[in-house]
Structures are given as structure tokens and as C-alpha cells.
Amino acid sequence: MAATISDLDSYADYDSFLVEQFDPNTHANSIIHQSAKGELDIATSLSSLSFSIESLNKQLQDQVTAHYNDLLSQAAGIRELETILMTVKAGLKALSTSMERLSFKVKTPFEQIQTYTIQLERLQVTSEMLRRVLRFLYLSKRLEMQMPGGDLELTKAALTLSEVDSLLQESDLEGINVVDSEVRNLESVRGRIIDSADRMLQDGMSSQNQAQVGSALQVFYSLKGLDIKIMAITTNLNSKLHSQIKHAVDIQSLQKEAKEAGMNNSAGFIGGGVRRRDGEPSVGAAALWTSILWKRMEKLMDDMYNGCVKIYLLERVLARKRDPLTQVSFLEVVTNSMDGNIIHRFWQSLSLHLEQELRASARSSQFLLQAFVDGFPRLLNLMHEFFSRVSVHSASATSDDVQSPEVVLMLRAVSTFESAHLAKVAQRSGQSTPTVGGAPRRR
Known about the structure:
Layout: H1 2-9, H2 24-36, H3 42-66, H4 68-146, H5 151-170, H6 177-207, H7 210-222, H8 226-248, H9 251-264, H10 286-320, H11 330-338, H12 342-364, H13 366-374, H14 376-391, H15 405-413, H16 415-429
Helix pairs in contact: 4-5, 4-6, 5-6, 5-7, 6-7, 7-10, 8-10, 8-11, 8-12, 9-10, 10-11, 10-12, 10-14, 12-13, 12-15, 13-16
């Protein structure tokens, strides 16, 4: 019988029941659908299913009968496994309880420490902020007390203001009412300090007072504006000398001055003796014009001398003053910022302006050209005296046989008139043009 069932079981179709997505309703509907089409009989399908069920039950019974002892031992093992699993479960529950207790002991203190750490950091930041605010208020009060003082107090006030600026740059105090109100007052204080230092510097340079100049320069250095101030001074001085050079050789102002002098002269040159055709002086007025021109040149040399004295004074004081921390001289700071020595830059600008204006005036007026060519020895003598006076204030010393760079620059500015003068002298004497010589040396 067993063989018969086994043989019949080979014809049973179990594949459709072994599909992972098997759905009994879907399978039943499929059978009904096939029966409706006449492809399959429902009764036959039911019989096949019943037979398959009986076959499977029979096979299960055979398997249980054939492995009875093994199944009994497996059942006993399952009971023992249940006991072991109960023990493991109890252990896991105890471990979970221990983990909860340990988490409570570790997590809670950690969270407290984290909270306290945040509070401490914020307290430190607040304390540092308050310390800086107090320092700012103290400096503001000290600055207010230093402002009415003299030159020494002005220097101290500049140092205090510099410290206030550094404090504001290092700390973000914006938004604090007491600080914002004081910051607005600092701008007016800064303007007063700069104006006072400006006046002190101008007075010191005019009177050659090194102490005043040094105090004023210290103020500008403390306020981080020394290089800008020195650049402005040299620029203004060069511009002023340029205007003075231009005025000295201006043919229109010379004509006006000659006209006024001619009218006031009893021997008089009415109208200054100007020829209407080209605005040049008449023969009779040439002496008056020449006299006025050389007086102007003498005054120009005085103006140039005064400018040079101021520049040399400025250089001496800059070289003497030093940063108290780095010991770097103010002159080195200014030289690095201006990319060059202020003395050399001043002389370059002065010689360039002198050369440009003298050549321009000679091109525009035949009288001026002739006056500078014929009177070149007089011009050279004026420059010689100018160099002699300047050499007293110059920091560098040169021998009588060596011309300083400043002398070379200035002589180059009048080299055109020198060449024309030497050529004219050679032509008169019937000789070849002599070599340039007799140039003034700085003593």
C-alpha cells in the first residue's frame, strides 16, 4: 500500500503550493475560472486535493513512525533549551537593569558637567567683556583729563587714544550703550588732538624747535598716521616752493611789478617800459626789469633755503625718535612707507620744478632767456650761497672736491643756461667752448 501511495504521490502537483507568494484564494479562483471554461473539473480538483492531503498525512505518519526515538530525544532537548533560554532571558533582563543604573550614574553627571561647562565659558566671556568695558571707560576718563594739558599731555593723550583704538579693534564692544556714547565723543577728541599736533608741528618747524617737532611726530606715530603726515608735509612744501619758483620767473607778474615800480620812480619808466608788440621791456626799462628779476631770485633762494631747513630738521627728529617697544626709528618707518629717503625725494622734486619753470620761462620770454644766460654767473653765485647755507643744516658732509647729490641735481636744473653762457663767452673770445667748471661745492 505504501508503494502504491508513493507511486501515486509522484503524480501530485505540489509546485504551485511551494511558491513564496502562494495565495489560496487566488488558487481557488484559478480553478473555478478554468472550470468555467471547461478546461478543468472542480470535482476532479477536489478529489486530487483530498488524495494529496491523505498522501501527505500518510507520509508524515511514516516519518514519525520511522524516527520516533529521534523525535523523543529532540523534544527532550527542546525542554532543556527552553530552560536555558529562560536563564539567558533572566540574565539579559538583569544586564538591562544594570545598564539603566549605570546610564543613570554616568549620563546624569555628564549632562550636569556639560551644562556647568557652558555656563563657565559664558561667564568667562562676560567677565572678559566687562573687563574690557571697564578698561575702555578708564581710558576714556584718562583721555578726558589729559586733553586740557600742554605738549607733554598731548603726547600722553595720543598714546591713550591709540590704546583705546587697539582695544576697540581687539574687542567687539559695539551695541553696548555706554561704549557707543563714548565712541562718538572720541572722534571729536581725535580731531582736537590732530589739530593741536598739526599746529605744534608747524610752529616747531618754523622756529626750529626740535622738542616741539618731536612731540608732534610722536602724536602722529601713536595715532598710526606718521607716514601720511610726513607725505603731506613734503608734498605741501614742494607745492609751495613750486608756486614760489613759478612766481619768481612769471613774466606777467614781473611786468606788473615793473610797471608799479616805474610809476613810483621819479625818473620813471611810465608803464614799466613795455613794448606793445611782444610784452618785452624796452631798452630803457631793461635795467629795472633785471633788478626786479634778481631780487626775486634772491628771495626764491631764501624760500628754498627755508624749505630745506624744515626738511632737514624733520629728518633729524625722525632719525632720533624711536618706537619704545621695537626701537625702530621713525625715519625708517617713514622711509619704508614712502619707498625712498625724504631728503632725496625733496631735492628731486625741487630740482625738477626749478628746471621746468626756468626752461618754460626762457621759452616764453626772450628777456628772461637773455637775463639768465648773460647773468648766469650771478645765478651760480646765488646757488653757491644757497648751498653754503644749506650745508650747515645737512646731516651729511662732503669734501670740497666732491659734489653732493643735491648739488648735482640743482646744477643740472640750470645746465641749459650754463651751456648757453659758456658758448656765448667762447664766441665772444673767438675760442672753443670751454669745459664746465667752477661749479659750487658744498662745504
